[in-house]
Amino acid sequence: MKLAAAILSGVLILIALAALPSVPAQMPSGKDVVSPTAYASLDPVARSSSFQIAVVLKIRDGFHINARQPSADYLIATDLRADLPAGFKAGEISYPKGELRKFSFSKTPLNVYENKVIIRMPIDALPDAPAGAAHIPLKLRYQACSTDACLPPVTLSVDAALNITDAKAAARPAHPELFPQH
Known about the structure:
This protein has 182 residues and is mainly β. Helices cover 10% and strands 40% of the residues.
């Protein structure tokens, strides 16, 4: 009898839980919306050579971030900055063109990034770049939004790891899918 009562109680609890209204999905943190990864165009990188860093942003489904050139002054642009160590010099960062998208909360289309975006930065390894493993610290700032809400702006740290060599002949192209030859 006790077993039947326990089973009946369990079934009634399950029925009661199933009848409760569903709780809306919790909004993620802005830091959890974009996954950035940095890649170098050469491995290893020779001293006195030029190369690029590509930062690939994977943006969570259902979200977008404002493009580098936002549609309005009040929108926060996506921004990438490098804190270059001694031995490196950066060129002008190349941001992709965004897509104009219409959202229910805006009267005009917004210039945004969605899905996957690649930001590229040209860099010179100077003759005095330290040989061996090197790291270029990057900071990515953006504001993520869904169709319902915008999250507070966030800044993520991104590390570009490279290997520096004295031998120009040792330098080899890396990640050709990210660095097309012109």
